[in-house]
Amino acid sequence: MALNKFTAVLALTAGLALAAGAALAHEGHEGAPPKSPGGKAAWARHDNFKAQGAAFKAINDELKKDAPDKALIASNALKIKASSTALPSWFPKGSGPESGVKTDAKAEVWSDAAGFAAAANKFQVEASKFQQLAAAGDIAAIKAQVRPVGGSCKGCHDKYRVPEKK
Amino acid sequence: MADGGAASGSAAVRARLWDAPVRLVHWGLVTLIGFSWWAAEYDHLEWHRWSGYGVMGLVVFRLIWGFAGSGNVRFASFVRGPAATFAYLRALPHRASGFTPGHNPLGAWSVLALLAVLVVQVVTGLFAVDVDAFEAGQLSDRVDFDTGRLIAGWHEWSFTALQVLVVLHLTAVAFYLVYKRDNLIGPMVTGWKKVAKDPGLVFAPLWRAAVATLVAVGFAWWVSKGFRM
Which end of chain B has less Cβ packing within 10 Å, N or C? Predict the structure, then answer.
């Protein structure tokens, strides 16, 4: 009897925690699609970043395997390089917090435009190197370049993205 | 160091209360939960992952020990129904400490809640993915980016739940210490407590702890390898 209760409590607590998490998570878009150009740009940016994250994750997942699929890594590295080039255009004026759309882009993206451009450029350089290594197919070299790429994401996020709740 | 008087100050004998494995699990969790928090806050995610495997091992051990451990740490012996819990709650305002040779009926729920949240914490951590898709749990290749991000949110929320439970736990320990003049901390360190009468607890043999340790460490190691051997 005590055991059944134990299992029930375990399941109940886990269920509650998951339900609370699901209710409060906000990975997709919130509310109705925006009509303003700034709002639309903020939404598109969100989707672009998610696609970029998915591409990077696909590579990192592949690198965990004993025999990584080099073609899959190369195609995703190409995606990341392309999106690193496009990235500055995802931040038109008016697509920040003032757009009325929920965005994690800080006002500093625009108020410190030179700093933001430098951070974006750092990402482009690392992503470009990454793409070349991925095309060459040397797994050890690709693995070594993961950290600089991730670091250039983080470097920009730390300064220009609203920190996640801590 | 005073072990604290138990029932009405007639503490006559020193009795063995907690076995070594339970005490090691307790202080191990205190250390690793604190360390995991620090490592996450300061971006040492590699250490955070290793610390998480440590927590996993300790929790797995405690779950095994809840079925195969010493008498007073087995779930079947200390998890009580609502009647016993409410009876204990009603007696709580009495300053005299009603000594239980193990977890009291109310504390039992705290133990279960803490273990349950730790299970959620460890499992969500294994699948969580950070915003850069750079840091991730060992099993995150089983889920896509969006799901990994969603689970990372759960990992945060279950940590908040854990913090609440820890504060509750510390408050309860302080309440016993100050209001009931019953030191619960000493016995959790030494394993011994001064009581009126030795409850004559039965303790599990060392070999059983060794087997449970082997299983727990093996399991955590296997998970840390992403089930790839």
Answer: C
Residue B129 with chain A: CB contacts under 8 Å: 53, 57
A161 touching B (Cβ < 8 Å): yes
Q: Where are the alpha helices (DSSP H) in chain A?
A: 2-24, 37-64, 70-86, 108-111, 113-136, 139-160
Total count of residues recorded for chain B: 229
DSSP symbol at B7: G
Q: Which pair of tokens denotes residue B123?
A: 């499992």
Cβ of B157 under 8 Å from any chain A Cβ?
yes
ipTM: 0.77
Q: Do A17 and B157 touch (CB under 8 A)?
A: yes
pLDDT (tens digit, 9 = 90+) per residue, B83-114? 999 999 999 998 887 788 999 999 999 999 99
Asked if the model's pLDDT at residue A164 lies above 80, the reply is no
C-alpha distance from B96 to closest chain A C-alpha (Å) = 28
Angle at B123 between CA B121 and CA B129, to 5 degrees: 90
Tokens of B56: 């996993």
